[in-house]
Amino acid sequence: MIAQKLRRAVSLILVAAAVLVAAPSCAKKFPAAMSYKGVEINEALYKYYVSTYKGKYLQTYSDLKDTAEFFDSELTAGKTGEEVLSELIYGNISQTLISAAEFDAAGQKLTSDDTSEIDSYIESMTDELASGSRRTLNGYLGEFSINVDMLREALILEKKADLYIDYLYGDNGAKALTDDDRETYYENNYVRFQQIYINNIKVYETDSKGYYIQDENGNYQMRDLTDEESAEAERKIKAVREALERGDDFSELQAEYSDSKDYTGGYYFSAESASDYLTSVVSAAFTLDEGEWMYVDAASPSGAFFIKRLPLDEGGYKADANSDFFDGFDDAVMGVKFAEKVESLRDEITVDRDFLDSVTVKDSPANYYYY
Fold first, then answer.
1. In whole angstroms, what is the distance from residue 276 CA to residue 87 CA?
2. Which of 104, 111, 156, 276 is deepest in the core (most CB within 10 A)?
3. Which of 40-44, 76-80, 119-123, 210-214 has the lowest mean pLDDT?
C-alpha cells in the first residue's frame, strides 16, 4: 500500500502532502496558502491536511481529546493544545512541500509504475470506502475541502517527497549516509545499559505437567505470585541491592539473580525507541553516568529492575548481536539529517499568514479515512 511506504519516510510522527495549484486535474483554482520554488499548497488542500493530521493525532495519542477544553487549555511550555498541534501540522506540511519541490529541482521524475501505483491506490479507496463510486468519494472528500483529482495530485507530491529522501541519503544517494553519520547519531542519541530483572508481579500459569496454559484465543495465561513466590522475589531484590551497595560485580549478580538472561551485553535505546521497551527504565538509564546503577520499580505488569549504564561501544549499531535494537536505524539517521536540511529552508516558504491563522485545528473536522 502506498500509505505504508510513505509513512516510513521521515522522523516526524506523520507524512504530509503538497499539490500544485495549477494542476490540470483541478477544475477550480484556489489561492495559495503556502508556496516554495513554484510549488503551492492551495487553501483547500491546507484545510484538508489540517483535518487529516487532526484525525491522525487523535488516533495515535490517547491523551489528545477533540474538545474545546483540550485545544484552549495549556498543553506544554505555556502553549495551548491548539498552538502545539498547529505548529506540528505546519512543520509536517512544510517539510513535504520543500522536499517535493526539491525533488523536481533535482531533475528527478516519477516513473509510470509510481503513478500507476497511486492510481491503483485511489481505485482501492473508491471501492472500499465509496462502493466503487467516484461521485460518492468526491462527496466524502468534500467535507475536507478537496475532491478525488486533488487527492491524486497530493499523493503524487507525497510520493516525490518520499523519494527525495532516498535520492539524498539512500545507498546510491547524492549524500549517502556514511559510518561517520551513523556513529554521530548513535553517540548523540543512544544509551546502553545492563539490567537485572526480578519478577515480583506475575508468572505464566502451568498445568500439572508443567506446560503453559493457553486461553481460547491462544494467549498464555498469567497469575499473581503466591505469597511464597512474592517473599522470594523480595529476598532477591534485597540481596541484589545490598550486593551492589558493597560494590559486587553487576554481571555476576545478573547471572545469579536476574529472571531474564537476554542481552547480557547490554540494551540499546534512544529516546525515540524507548517505547519499544519500558519508557520508565530507558528514561532512568539516560539519567545515569557511565558505571552508575539504579533501582527502578516499573510496577505492574513489569516488575523490578536494577540497571547499570555502560559506555557505548564503537559501532554498536552494526553488531549482529545488537540487531534487535537497531531496526530502522538508517531511516532514523536520514530523518534527522533531512529535518535539519528542511529547517534551514523553511524561511524561504511564502505563507499567507492571515489564511493559516484563520484555519484552526479545533474547528476542523477530523479526517480518519481519506488520505
1. 26
2. 156
3. 210-214
Residue for grid cell 548481536: 321
Quick one: cell of 290? 557511565
CA distances from 246 to 240, 241, 249, 258 (A): 10, 9, 9, 18
**1 pLDDT higher than 70:** no
Distance CA 10, CA 335 (A): 5
322: its cell numbers: 545488537
Which cell numbers hold the place of 71? Answer: 485545544
Q: How far apart, in whole angstroms, are the C-alpha atoms of residue 155 and residue 115?
A: 9
15/300 Cα distance (integer angstroms) = 35
What is the mean pLDDT of the segment spanning 189-206?
91
Asked whether 100 and 160 are in contact (CB, 8 A), the reply is: yes
Positive or negative torsion for Cα 341, 345, 346, 352: negative
pLDDT tens-digit series, residues 286-339: 999 999 999 998 765 678 999 999 999 999 999 999 999 999 999 999 988 988
For 295, the enclosing helix (H) or strand (E) is strand 293-299
> β-strand 222-224 against 74-76: which pairing, if any?
unpaired
Enumerate residues 6+ apart whose C-beta is below 8 A from 19.
26, 40, 41, 42, 45, 150, 153, 154, 156, 157
| 255-278 pLDDT, tens digit each | 999 999 999 999 999 988 888 888
Report the predicted TM-score, pTM, of the whole model to 2 decimal places.
Answer: 0.67
CB-CB neighbours of 261 under 10 Å: 9
Q: Phi and psi (nearest 5°) for 83?
A: -65, -40
Sign of dihedral through CA atoms 153, 49, 173, 113?
A: negative
